[in-house]
Amino acid sequence: MSWKRNYFASGGGAAGGAQGLVTPRTMTSIAPSKGLSNEPGQNSCFLNSALQVLWHLDIFRRSFRQLTTHKCMEDSCIFCALKSIFAQFQFSSERVLPSDALRSALAKTFQDEQRFQLGIMDDAAECFENLLMRIHFHISAETREDICTAKHCIPHQKFAMTLFEQCVCNSCGATSDPLPFIQMVHYISTTSLCNQAVKMLECREKPTPDMFGELLRNASNVGDLRNCPSNCGEVLRIRRVLMNSPEIVSIGLVWDSDHSDLAEDVIHSLGTCLRLGDVRPPHTHLYLAISVRTFTGVQSPSLEPIQWINL
Ligand SMILES: [Zn+2]
Ligand SMILES: [Zn+2]
Ligand SMILES: [Zn+2]
């Protein structure tokens, strides 16, 4: 189903529908923009898009620049490789840079797991997530990933979402034990994102700026069903609550097939305003990091300041 085609073709949409649900704000990033090479057979597009997201996130770029000491892993050191490519982004006169050193450090680091190996395609969002966890390792190795409070740890200080999930039965009142966890990327199914967009637009005159947060919340809840904790027979939706206020919220889009026809709809569903409701101050600026990989292999990281999120 194509909500974008149906909605805008029927004349019900906002003027300039091709702009997406929400008109993007001015980009605040002034980072120089360069391409990253991806020769035939290299299959580095997943890494390149993760890298572009990190480079174009002001908060990450500036904080990372200040880090100097780290636990070095020599030729498999992701920290050193990242420092080197960031220096090239900033100072090189080339328009297109090779990401080979980082690609190789990544392959060596994940050799045992057989992830991110040379020449083999992999997932951009998972690569992004793993790059963050490796940075944590290089700069605060002594702290466990799930309880890291190191002030200088950019991944945990800026990106980590602390959530808990719980089932509450409306029928018998039983509740499951709250399960706390940390996530770096919030994954959403593109199919449920588009289906929810259709549903939400059915009862609205036109898209509104606060719609994206609600859309994410609705799309996250779909399909995640559990049995009632006291087995009363009720099937429940799991409830997830965001407990902290990360400066950067990363959304990973999960495609249900390699040949999804939803790419255009998804891009038009992306908004830049997320509200956490009345619970949190609405003046905090967050950054939304979305890496869109189209099936033609073109990456276009889209980075916009956003408001709040309630997952
Ligand atoms: Zn190093
Ligand atoms: Zn950490
Ligand atoms: Zn129950």
From TrEMBL:
The entry's keywords: Hydrolase, Ubl conjugation pathway
GO biological process: protein deubiquitination
Superkingdom, natural source: Eukaryota
InterPro entries noted in UniProt: Papain-like_cys_pep_sf, Peptidase_C19_UCH, Ubiquitin_hydrolase_53/54, USP
Alphabetical list of Pfam families matching this protein: UCH
Domain USP residue range list: 34-311
Protein name as catalogued: Inactive ubiquitin carboxyl-terminal hydrolase 54-like
Protein's organism: Takifugu rubripes
